[in-house]
Hints:
Oligomer: single chain
Structural class: mainly alpha
Radius of gyration: 17 Å
Distance between the termini: 49 Å
Amino acid sequence: MSGRLKAWLVFVGLFAAVSYASNFLGNQPEGYEPLYHYATAVGGAITYTVLLIVVVVIAFGTDMRELFALRRPRTAWAFGGPFVLIVAVLALSAILDPILHPGKEQGLVPTHWQPSHAGPYAANAVVVVVIAPIVEELIFRGMGYSLLERYGRALAIVAVGVAFGLAHGLVDALPLLAALGAGLAWLRSKTGSVFPGMATHAIFNGIAVLSVILR
């Protein structure tokens, strides 16, 4: 196992540990809606900036374009793949939601739309729909998949999916998040690029953000 892979595994392990500790120990007031507060957007932007700096440091001295798969998609899966993945994950979500209630556990999306909080909601939408997909895809489907692919594509897809799920620090939502993470890794394996995954990830998050407004 390379030193860079060990560093990535330690990084993801700490990421997951902090996420679980934060979710289990953090107590929010009853009725608190995080996306209606500017502090959530600022905190999220800072967190993702730190995460990005860490992976860049781990990648230092390599061909970062290659390691992060920052290249043009090589197959038609760049167009058909996201559609297949979105349909599959939405179907799985519909099956798991009555049993595990993954969205409720995360507690991120507001229960109803409040136009008076449109400003902070828009700021948080930028973090959730733009910044988060870019940084998370670089961490997992970029660096993570590249480092694990030498051990076999199937192992890389599963391992990246599980790591992605654990990094969110949730229990009931873990199966859905791991499936999404594995699906995005599968898309990365098909296209050879991190960009289709970024777009697909952004669409998933965008659906959640818009669902509040369209209810």
